[in-house]
Amino acid sequence: MLGNRAVHSWEDQRFDGLSGGERTKLALAGVWAESPDLLILDEPTNHLDFQGTSWLISELKGYKGTIIIISHDRYFLDKTVDRILELEDGRLEEYKGNYSYYRREKEKRYQASLHAYQIQEEYKKRLNDQIRQLKGWSGKAHRESTKVDSAGNKMGTKEYKRVKAKKLDRAVKSKLKRLERLKVEGVEKPKVYGRVKFAFESEGKGGKSIIDARGIGKAFGDRTLFADSSFYIQRGERIGIFGQNGCGKTTLIKAFMGQESLSGSLFVSPGVRIGYVCQDVHDMTEDTRALDMFEVADRRQLGLLRTLLANMGLREQHLQKQVSDLSLGERTRLKLAKLIYHDYDLLILDEPTNHLDLQAREQLEEALSQYEGTIILVTHDRYMLEQICEKLLVFKNGIIRRIEQEPKAYLKAYETSYQESGGADKEDISKDHKPGLAADKASKTGPMEDEILLDHELARVLARLSMAKADSQEYQDLDDQYQDLLARKKALRKK
Question: Least enclosed by CB within 10 Å: which of 25, 90, 117, 204?
């Protein structure tokens, strides 16, 4: 069974204020405290950063027991499983391999089934043609067996015509039986599942430079997230933002949208139209009807909107529901529909695949690959990051750097370095001499005045807590630091 006693020993009030990523890390921290025979992990990488996912993969590789994983994280599945069971239409299909093998094998099985079905349909068509022809011949034979010529004699031998007609009738019955057997025992038409049809467009107006940062930084009191950072983003580029939880990715995104102030100089082209999707699906107005979230001027726009929503798997019954009655996946699709409904020059996507199934994720990637505007993507979905993005903005040693290397090559090198160091991030900004102070250091610098800073520190402590032994002094010290930070956050919220 799944061992998690260390986590459940915490009082309920100590979980208040935890983000999704913090809860995930805390849950994982207690797994290794016991020696379970069976691990059942339900979306274990949700909200985990690259380091957390790499650590979990490493731990699972050394685990000797049985592991059952439910996950939409394709990279994680590639690295951790050797067998996939897919439940589809009440049937369980087995694939003996990882996710990449599953996708290839599933396509092969589909093509094989489709080919067999097409051959069967051609055969059925020939049978129907033969049946029609035989029925015509049989009818003619029956008619001729009763005809009389001008001399009053039968045309041909009466018995011969009757035998011929009966023989044709038997042939017709035989072929009809074959058709009936095919209907019952034949190859079923392989089901083509409705695909979500994303269709992003961009007007493509404006100059070449869309964002220009020179010496930007962000600090909260004595705590520095990043400093002295310079980079640029040009129109049409696809930029991924990479860094640990709590390093300042969300702060940077908010600055792009004018919601956060930074030191230094940050230029965002004033003519650019920005479309933004955040990872929180609970920020939507709960008591609003889904259809009322869109501004529709006339019947024509309403028709286009309904078509768009239908293409994304949101049918009429979904549109009449209140947002509070929609599933998390339906809410995510609704957010993306709002993004598509307006033609934006710049898409800022913060974990856009959260709550989407695998087919929807792949279709979203396909649509984004065809989008001609600018993309800034924050995601823990490594597959999406590698397929969509061409460059990276990396949070490294308290500085944001633009990396011209393709994400796949950069992340591979980073992963190798991370594993060779035994799971220690050489680029971690948790040392005292670096711009970013460690959570334990920051917790001693006095009261923190900004909730954003507290969130960053909580994430940093939880990242370390997830890797500490549950019965160690380090775990206890980090636990104490976490409680102190959580108490400060509660106090700040009461002000």
Answer: 90
Structural domain including 129 reads: 105-185
Q: Is the pLDDT score of 392 beyond 90? A: yes
Residue 164 neighbours by CB under 8 Å, 6+ apart: 141
Q: Are residues 80 and 17 in the same domain?
A: yes
Cα–Cα distance measured from residue 370 to residue 240, given in angstroms and rounded to the nearest whole number: 17
Please state the rounded mean pLDDT for residues 174-179.
79
Helical segments of 93-222, H only: 99-144, 158-185
287 and 214 belong to one structural domain: yes
Max distance between CA atoms of the chain, in angstroms, equals 125
User: Residue 11 pLDDT more than 60?
Assistant: no
Instruction: Inform me whether the pLDDT recorded for 386 exceeds 60.
Output: yes
Regarding whether 137 and 92 lie in a shared domain, the answer is no
Element (H, E) at 42: strand 38-42
Distances (CA, A) of 33 to 18, 241, 461, 467, 475: 21, 33, 18, 11, 11
Residue ending a domain, among 420, 445, 464, is: 420
Residue pair 437/222 in contact by the 8 Å Cβ criterion: yes
Q: Phi-psi category of 89—alpha, beta or left, where left has phi over 0 and alpha has psi -120 to 50? A: left
Please state, for a pLDDT cut of 90, what percent of the chain lies above it. 14
CATH of the domain at 96: 3.40.50.300
Q: Does residue 244 sit in helix, strand or coil?
A: coil
What pTM did the predictor assign? 0.58
Number of domains in the chain: 3
Structure tokens at 110: 């589909």
Q: How many CB atoms lie within 10 A of CB 160?
A: 13
- Helices 299-311 and 328-341 cross at an angle (nearest 10°) of 130
Structure tokens at 219: 């600090």
